[in-house]
């Protein structure tokens, strides 16, 4: 089957900066895929190349089987891209902007779909408002709407929830999840790892222009749990002193909280008993299980040690 996105041996250089190096990636139709990585890892550069907005220095990219350079128009029709930056035309209302965007794709009678998008992104009240009068969060909703006017089979969202409120996140993800269930392929970049964990099937982690990990969320978390079995407990104590007997279990001490390693649940009761005996009160307690954030931190740290 033709993949939704295929990236083969892609390199991108900006003068002396190597932003992408030997990238291979195959994203299947219908996947919900995340591109993760620290600032400057190369996520936006890769998205720009997939979108045909930037040329790779070497390598090839196709979207739904169409080469993004030699078959640019066909590839572009297959894609809806929500950019990171808030770019908008200040002269039109939300609805006008969506009608004009439909026109770019040669779609004339798109009102039903435009109404559906407006409704699902909770933009109904703002449909006749001028773009320049919208708040940042509302403008971001319109950017998402614009990317969807031509019902693209592949949707790319570059940090769509950066700096937006909880309500928009929920509205946006509910709609995007629905589109994914309807068969659209979704590619997402985000710094909110809990979003990637909750939504995505597979993730690729980029570091300094290279893919350092590519696997399913489930595999990544279970490998981390296997390499580092057990749980950890986060404790805020009063007074802020840890009994010496517990010191060997300390993993870290952040923001006045101790993170302690425990092998299993049965170690919780002796820990509580020891705190009771030493008259130390528990102000906060949380049991932590391996998550995508821990996987990400471990992989980035491991990779840093290997680079040294
Ligand atoms: N137009 C450009 N000219 C020169 N260097 C660039 C250009 N665009 C990106 N870079 C460099 O390429 C590297 C990758 O940048 P990119 O924006 O793709 O990272 P990113 O993973 O999207 O980061 P962020 O999470 O901050 O958005 C960085 O070192 C960046 O400085």
Automatic annotation (TrEMBL):
Keyword Transferase: no
SUPFAM superfamilies with a match to the protein in the record: P-loop containing nucleoside triphosphate hydrolases
A Pfam family assignment: ABC_tran
Segments traversing the membrane: none
Keywords: ATP-binding, Cell membrane, Membrane, Nucleotide-binding, Transport
CDD domains: ABC_DR_subfamily_A
InterPro entries: AAA+_ATPase, ABC_transporter-like_ATP-bd, ABC_transporter-like_CS, ABC_transporter_ATP-binding, P-loop_NTPase
An example Gene Ontology molecular-function term: ATP binding
Domain ABC transporter stretches: 5-233
PROSITE patterns the record matches: ABC_TRANSPORTER_1 (PS00211), ABC_TRANSPORTER_2 (PS50893)
Stated name of the protein: ABC-2 type transport system ATP-binding protein
